[in-house]
Amino acid sequence: GGTDVSAALPGEKARLKAFVDEVRGRTPLAGPDAPMGIAAARLEALGYVDAATGGAPGGEIDAKQRAAAVRKLDEARHKVRRPGGRAEAEALWREVVASDPDIVEARLEVVSALDRTGRRAEALATLDAGLAVQPDAAPLLVNRARLLLAAGRTAEAIADAERVLASDPRDRAARELLVTALPPEQAVARVRAWQATEPDDAFLHAMAGLALMALDRP
Questions:
Q1: HSE (side-chain half, CA atoms, 13 Å) at 4
Q2: Are 51 and 139 in contact (CB under 8 A)?
Q3: What sign for the dihedral angle of Cα 178, 210, 218, 5?
């Protein structure tokens, strides 16, 4: 049974379809419209906000300590918008990762560049190195899960998504990935469980529709 809500939520349906295509490796890992990753990491990217608590990690951070990294990130953002500037931007992101390994934004940009050029093993290694520094960083875990899923390593992808949800049960990116990675019957059951406590969340209705479509129950 169930009600088809996809017609009432065309924007969510399109966004979720794009997400499914992305995690299955049909489109690049990251970009300005990616549903997770770089955009989701902005606040904690420079280490000023702790993703789990919303506060400053380890007390106050002196912005001057990050001045060089901030300048390089800003320069990279300008370069990547120019024709032929991506290689220079990637070099800057790599410099930031080397000097400030806990800056999530730069690491995700390097991962995106590696995946875009077919270097998935190196992209995974780059994420693993970041997780060695920040084991519970949700943007790193979710992006690793997406790469693992695209590589057919579904169980590992699910484990990463579950780690994120253990810390933040309502993390939208991890929920999206889990619904995509789980067998359809399990995905439907998981979404229904979320809906039991969040019955008015339109996004969950869209995810339920996506999971039911996978069961050929539109």
A1: 7
A2: yes
A3: positive
SS (H, E, C) 8-44: HCHHHHHHHHHHHHHHCCCCCCCCCCCCCCHHHHHHH
Q: What is the pLDDT of residues 23-73, one digit of tens each?
A: 444 444 444 434 333 333 443 444 433 444 434 343 334 456 678 888 888
Q: Residue 139 is encoded by which pair of tokens?
A: 């943007």
Q: Give this prediction's pTM.
A: 0.70
Which residues have C-beta within 8 Å of that of residue 43, sequence separation ≥ 6? 49, 51
- Rounded Cα–Cα distance for residues 147 and 171 (Å): 18
Q: Which of 2, 16, 9 minimizes the C-alpha distance to 210?
A: 16
Check: CB of residue 9 under 8 Å from CB of residue 205: yes
Q: String of b and e for 128-155 (b: at least 16 CB within 10 Å)? A: eebbeebeebbbbbbbbbbbbbbeebee
| Tally of CB atoms within 10 A around 79 | 17
The token duo for 122 is: 């190196």
